[in-house]
């Protein structure tokens, strides 16, 4: 196994560990209706406030939200890659 394959394997293992930890964090929430991590702003004022707080890194659970957003973007990238590969 060459160095690049080892780096990919390490990154994959780290991502799986991160996803496992994140899923445990989300499952351990007792009251799912008040889950602050996944609450999306509804009104235009809430959306603006959320964008400003995101830019200034002062949202509640900011690190977890950032990781969740990164995982969501990565999943979309993988979805597009698989879709492109299937078309070829």
From TrEMBL:
Keywords, ordered alphabetically: Coiled coil
Coiled-coil regions listed in the entry: 61-88
Keyword Coiled coil included in the entry's annotation: yes
Domain of life: Bacteria
Name this polypeptide is given: Uncharacterized protein
